[in-house]
Specification:
single chain; mainly beta; 8 helices; about 10% helix; about 45% strand; globular
């Protein structure tokens, strides 16, 4: 009896145990991959002294500061700052520190150059936002301390390089002064702060040691100034007037200011339009951009200008580099077809010839060169050589040296804005997927290593060998479909307008395409990608057809024309593209496909017209048949209004065709702006599969309210719309709504007093889970709302449900007022959240997991059973049998539930889940500055064997069992024969 009780308790414990996602150490890298990036480089500073590693320190648009190995491009160290902590300036000072100025010039940090550890951080005070300037003077000390000058927030600061202490501060944000430059024309204690006040040119002469303003000088230029200032010599600057057609040479030495005007048309023939100054620090020279032409203009000591060279093709210019005493060099990179030309010139002696000129073959899929940074080195013959770090249009980073590409980084993958998936082609007949062991010795060695790993006796070298063997023997990197549906293509769209296809097996780039239709042109000056959609998904039997995706973009601005591009999912070739005659404000994929399996889409412009694509008679006929069933909603978050729309009729404006439809507003919900502001919305995935409509609760059936037209909306009071802590508990409240988007009916409303955003939510089946901050408890909370359909009371008999005698075939209309029942519950949660997602499987049978992107840039898998609104302190036996977990005030954080293990997905922005053919398994792709991919099994793997299952050992076991059966049978026969002879 005791044994029976013990077995029963063991089974009961296993029944209530929560599945975890923990893996063994030697399994990391088999089912997941992790890739690190830095983003598009904005600034770069080389550090190539003889002592120490040769490196380049960069800052990027993703607010990343990193130190890269110059030999291979690997990351020595990296720091990802917050999304609002934009890096304004970067420099290396005193041979051992990296200085960064960020957040509009309000935060100055010093980092240790070798290892990237932060030495100090200084918060700078100021009154008004302004341009940020970081200036490290030469030989300027305050006692034994070096001084760093920082202009930010309208004030000039002198900061100690040892501990970041602010030595003095001068507020220059008076009379709307706009400081453009901080200069040290001569070695000494005097620095100049130079800027504009309207049409006045102003200079401040300041003692850098004490902060005393020695002199203020100003002079008025009637035409005013525009753009930036270019510093060309100790007492000479160059600017442009407000029209951009006149160059102004400004002399400011000796306490006097004088102007010299030169028309751009006098220097460049046939000039028309507006000029702009190319940011550079060339001594005695200024570079101007005139449309697509770049010209170099020399500035004489008397302020006169003369044209030196004109470059007709698009070009990038580097900052000057001192190569010897009194000599400067800079690089000009010109773009050509399938190649670039890099020229290094002497800034001081233009007629002395080029220091370097090389032509390098370049992949067209990288686009044009946007930025270039150069560094010099000494060759064996004691001459100067040059290396160039270039940033391409697709945000990739390359190092060029001696006419070759030394290394490259695809850092455009750090700025993914949208993604979709594509199935791989079916494997052709005659191709075997099985692999045979090479020899008996290798087979025994491999299984011995696996046994050591299982018993946790493996050394680090053994673990590496086990991982190598598994990666070598796995089929995960093949370019064909597998029977479990694990191998797919992740097709991602980046901010640069480039598409990458990543293989889920190992994360490699299968193909990439910088969309030609998204390149800058006169018709489309500022193209940007918006969204990525599945366009054509042929049936798997139609092997002669490849799937394709639709990329929707804009030429920049809300009223700019839209751009469409159609790309083959297997080859990465652009099949077709077009620039539309209307803007794109919203895209609606319709659940309808034509005979070629192209999905219909409606593109809405800002005037409220809907355009049908593809523009074919068949698509038009299908759309007209579905016209009464097409509804959508638009959220005007700035006005706190939600409007529901439907199609009305063919457009009537001039130039419209039969593929254009007018829209009609059906309903609107206007939230009172004085009390509520929309901060978050969530909706169900339209492709989500629900296994059953009913949920059995205490031997009774509750039917889920499974409308795909439900919308979750969260609003907060205006005072609570800021950051956490910006409002008191009495001033802030959170209100959430469940809204039917067909009728605009509010199905449910709940208010959370003393709550504040940000709010993150996921909507799946008949439930929504959302995360917010409780001001009164000073803790984060997560709440769950489940909604059930009460209109099917006659179908609640559980026996009718089992026997299939219930009636669920009656149509359900959103216009019939639903009878719903809502259950809700709230729990404390210890983590701040960046994003949320929910696991998805092919049939919807497997239990759900909530995937939470934490503030620590990790992904946590939380079982949905923890967020069941029916949890109580003392569950009944029936509820325990159902699997209900006893109620607790906080949600548990199990360390083994982090699907990212010990890895970080820096700058985490999104999590996407993808179902597989295996019902137990879901694929998870999370992206930010880094990428991470893995598989999860919310209910454990119950429908397949694991990848490390030893089929050879199983075969040996079967053979041994058969042999044992035969031996025991022979022995039994002999024994029986002996018994008969007795």
């Amino acid at each position: 009896m005791a044994m029976v009780i013990r077995v029963f308790l063991l089974l009961l414990l296993s029944f209530y145990s929560i599945p975890s996602s923990a893996i063994y150490e030697d399994q990391v890298g088999l089912m997941d991959w992790h890739q690190k990036y830095i983003g598009k480089v904005n600034q770069a500073v080389f550090h190539t002294q003889k002592a120490g590693r040769k490196r380049v320190v960069v800052s990027t648009e993703e607010n990343v500061i990193a130190s890269l190995d110059l030999r291979r491009g690997d990351i020595f160290w990296r720091h990802v700052l917050g999304s609002g902590d934009v890096i304004d300036e970067l420099d290396i000072g005193f041979g051992k520190y990296v200085f960064t100025l960020s957040s509009g010039g309000s935060i100055l940090r010093a980092w240790n150059l070798p290892d990237g550890q932060m030495v100090w951080e200084s918060y700078l005070q100021g009154s008004t936002p302004s341009k940020s300037i970081l200036f490290i003077p030469t030989n300027l000390k305050y006692g034994k301390d070096n001084i760093i000058l920082v202009f930010g927030m309208g004030s000039l600061h002198a900061v100690s390089s040892i501990d970041g202490e602010v030595l003095w501060r001068k507020d220059l944000a008076i009379e709307s002064l706009e400081i453009k430059q901080v200069l040290q024309p001569h070695d000494g204690d005097i620095v100049y702060a130079i800027g504009f006040v309207g049409s006045q040119f102003v200079t401040y002469e300041i003692n850098a040691r004490s902060g005393e303003i020695l002199k203020r000088t100003s002079e008025t230029f009637p035409s005013g100034f525009s753009g930036e200032l270019s510093y060309v010599s100790n007492d000479m600057l160059v600017a442009l007037d407000t029209t951009g057609s006149t160059i102004i040479s400004i002399r400011f030495g000796d306490g006097q200011i004088s102007f010299y005007k030169t028309a751009v048309s006098d220097l460049v023939e046939n000039f028309s339009g507006t000029a702009s100054i190319v940011p550079s620090k060339l001594t005695g020279m200024v570079a101007l951009k005139l449309n697509s032409v770049v010209v170099f203009v020399r500035v004489t000591d008397s302020g006169e200008l003369e044209l030196v060279e004109k470059i007709d093709s698009p070009a990038a210019i580097s900052d000057p580099l001192s190569v010897s005493e009194g000599q400067q060099a800079f690089a000009v990179v010109q773009n050509g077809e399938s190649r670039i030309i890099i020229t290094v010139k002497q800034a001081n002696d233009w007629s002395g010839g080029n220091l370097l000129k090389e032509t390098i073959v370049m992949d067209q899929q990288r686009g044009n060169v946007e930025k270039v940074f150069i560094n010099s080195y000494i060759r064996t013959d004691r001459s100067y050589g040059f290396r160039a770090l270039i940033v391409m249009e697709d945000h990739s980073l390359l190092l060029l040296q001696q006419g070759e590409i030394v290394w490259s980084r695809d850092d455009g993958l750090a700025s993914i804005i949208d993604m979709t998936t594509s199935e791989l082609p079916v494997e052709k007949e005659g191709v075997s997927v099985a692999k045979v062991e090479h020899s008996l010795f290798e087979w025994l060695k491999g299984h011995l290593l696996k046994l050591k790993g299982t018993l946790m006796l493996a050394t680090p070298e053994d673990i590496v060998a086990i991982q190598g063997m598994r990666l070598k023997s796995s089929q995960k990197s093949k370019m064909t479909r597998d029977h479990n549906g694990f191998r797919k293509l992740l097709i991602v769209l980046t901010r640069a307008g480039k598409i990458f296809a990543l293989h889920t097996g190992d994360g490699r780039v299968v193909w990439s395409l910088l969309l030609p239709s998204f390149k800058r042109s006169d018709a489309c000056p500022n193209p940007t990608g918006l969204n990525l959609y599945q366009w054509q998904v042929p049936h798997h039997h139609a092997l002669d057809e490849n799937p394709s995706v639709l990329v929707v973009g804009s030429c920049g601005g809300p009223n700019a024309p839209g751009v469409l591009s159609f790309v083959d999912s297997y080859t990465g070739k652009e099949l077709d593209s077009s620039t539309l005659g209307h803007s794109i404000d919203h895209i609606i994929p319709l659940p309808v496909t034509d005979s070629t399996e192209q999905r219909l889409h409606l593109l809405l412009d800002r005037e409220g017209h809907a355009f049908l694509y593809p523009r074919t008679p068949e698509a038009l006929k299908l759309c007209q048949a579905e016209l009464p069933n097409i509804y959508w909603y638009l959220i005007e978050a700035d006005k706190d209004i939600i409007r529901g729309h439907t199609l009305r009729k063919t457009c009537t404006f001039e130039g419209a065709d039969e593929y254009c439809f007018d829209t009609r507003e059906l309903w609107s919900i206007v939230f009172p702006s004085e009390s509520e502001k929309i901060i978050a919305t969530a909706k169900r995935n339209l492709n989500e599969v629900v296994h059953t409509q009913a949920k059995v609760v205490e031997h009774d059936a509750m039917f889920k309210y499974l409308s795909k037209n439900m919308l979750f909306v969260a609003t907060v009071s205006p005072k609570g719309a800021g950051e956490i802590g910006s409002a008191t508990p009495e001033e802030s409240s959170l209100v959430v709504y469940l809204i039917d988007t067909i009728t605009g009916r509010i199905l449910h409303r709940v208010s959370h007093h003393a709550a504040q955003g940000p709010v993150h939510a996921v909507f799946s089946e008949n439930w929504v889970i959302y995360h917010y901050f409780n001001l009164r408890a000073h803790r984060y909370e997560m709440s769950v709302i489940e909604i059930y359909d009460q209109s099917r009371a006659e179908n609640k008999d559980i026996w009718k449900l089992i026997l299939g005698k219930h009636d669920l075939s009656s149509p359900i209309s959103s216009y019939s007022r639903p009878e719903v029942m809502v259950k809700s519950q709230s729990y404390y949660f210890t983590h701040s959240v960046k994003t949320m997602a929910v696991s998805s499987t092919a049939k919807g049978i497997t239990s759900k997991q909530i995937l939470i992107g934490t503030i620590g840039d990790q992904v946590l898998a939380l079982d949905k059973r923890f967020l069941d609104p029916r949890r109580t302190l003392n569950p009944t036996p029936a509820e325990r049998e159902e699997g209900l977990i006893p109620l607790s005030d906080a949600l548990p954080i199990i360390p083994q539930s982090f699907v990212t293990h010990s890895l970080l997905v820096e700058g985490l922005r999104g999590i996407v889940t993808i179902p597989t053919k295996l019902e137990s398994t879901s694929l998870v792709f999370s992206y930010g500055v880094d990428l991470f991919f893995t598989r999860i099994a919310p209910s454990r793997i119950y429908d397949s064997l694991t990848e490390d299952f030893s089929y050879a050992l199983l075969l040996l076991t079967i053979v041994a069992l058969v042999a044992a059966i035969f031996v025991t049978w022979v022995m039994s026969e002999k024994k029986e024969l002996r018994e008969k002879w007795r």
